[in-house]
Amino acid sequence: MGIEVVVEGLTKSFGKQNIWRDVSLTLPAGEVSVMLGPSGTGKTVFLKSLIGLLKPEKGRVLIDGVDMVRSPEKDIYETRKLFGLMFQDGALFGSLSLFDNIAFPLREHTRKKESEIRRIVMERIEVVGLLGAEGKLPGEISGGMRKRAGLARALVLDPQIILCDEPDSGLDPVRTAYLSQLLIDLNAQIDATMLIVTHNLDIAATVPDNMGMLFRRELVTFGPREVLLTSDEPVVSQFLGGRREGPIGMSEEKDAATLAAEADRTTPAASRVIVPQLEPSPGLPPRRAVARRRERVMRMIDALPPAARSAIRETYARDAATATVTAPVAGGGA
Questions:
Q1: How far apart are CA 308 and CA 302, in angstroms?
Q2: Sheet hosting strand 17-27, strand order edge to edge
Q3: CB atoms closer than 10 angstroms to residue 312
């Protein structure tokens, strides 16, 4: 099972520029979470801070008893081995075949024999659907295949936490849909804790158990997906609706006068329909995170906003009705 990631009061700046401040959230063990936000809100910086590649000025990132901000470097280095990273561009070595790219972490960080490395690499290549392409160079394959190769490389050390930085960038809608299903299938197979940074609303709507959003140097919200998907926060409504009217501008946040003028001429946004979360492909086991998440969410449901409470109860009632309809009939047969 994946490992819980606890973020407490994290603040990060570059010089005088504050990126975000006092960010606190918990990535539940084994669940899939998404972090949304407009361009330039520090989502990638947040990922790098979780793994200890960047050092925030304040706060803690607690993983299995290790603080990725303040603990000794040797402890951070060891804890980093729990992570798998999928970068925006795949971050593949152009002169190496896909096989050698995917094998690189095993050769770098373990003392496994080449026969064992080959077995592991080919297993991961099969998981991401790249069998037959392992001898190709990154420049000889499509962007979508490079993404999947990057994901395979992130998996070879059996990570318990997987971070995906805009896995959909550069992909068309069809390939994005395949990637979304692949991420859910992966969670069903290895039960890892996953955090996906994305701008893509289709991934945000269909993949995660939990959702958060960064804006104006702060965490707007983080929690069960229904909280953000039913939120009436102006920045959330604007982002999910893909509208120009709202706090997000082209180059920076809009000033108060602009927002007031927009408010006078803006019609209310249509209520959003929460689409069902993706399920694992046929033949795969059910996601173990689903039962854990339900228990966790029902414990906190009375503290959630009314719209989120209603959406959660409707979802679980629909799931229960579906399970009843599809359950096999007992008895029947001698």
A1: 10
A2: 17-27, 5-14, 58-63, 66-67
A3: 22
> Which among 223, 75, 117 has a CA at the least distance from the CA of 236?
223
Which amino acid does the sequence have at 328? P
- The whole-angstrom separation of Cα 164 and Cα 148 is 11
Q: Angle 98-109/143-155 helices, nearest 10 degrees?
A: 20
- The 3-state DSSP class for residue 157 equals coil
H, E, C per residue of 101-146: HHHHHHHHHCCCCHHHHHHHHHHHHHHCCCCCCCCCCHHHCCHHHH
Which residues of 207-287 form beta strands (DSSP E)? 210-215, 218-224
- The pLDDT tens digits of the residues spanning 115-168 come to 999 999 999 999 888 999 999 999 999 888 888 899 999 999 999 999 999 888
How far apart are alpha carbons 43 and 252 in whole angstroms?
16
Residue range 5-265, CATH number: 3.40.50.300
Both tokens assigned to 322? 């579906």
Rounded-to-5 percentages of helix, strand, coil across the chain: 45, 20, 40
Output the 3-class SS for 270-289.
CCCCCCCCCCCCCCCCCCHH
**End-to-end alpha-carbon separation of the chain, Å?**
41
Tokens of 55: 């050092």
| Distance set, CA 143 to CA 81, 91, 216 (Å) | 27, 11, 32
Band (327; pLDDT cuts 50, 70, 90): low
* C-alpha distances in Å from residue 29, one per residue of 192, 224, 281, 293, 334: 7, 14, 22, 9, 45
Instruction: Say what the pLDDT of residue 89 is.
Output: 64
Which helix or strand (DSSP H or E) is residue 325 part of? helix 306-326
Residue ranges per structural domain of the chain: 5-265, 288-324
Please write the tens of the pLDDT for every residue from 96-106.
Answer: 999 999 999 99
Contacts of 40 (CB under 8 A, 6+ apart): none
Q: What is the DSSP string of 7-29?
A: EEEEEEEETTEEEEEEEEEEE-T
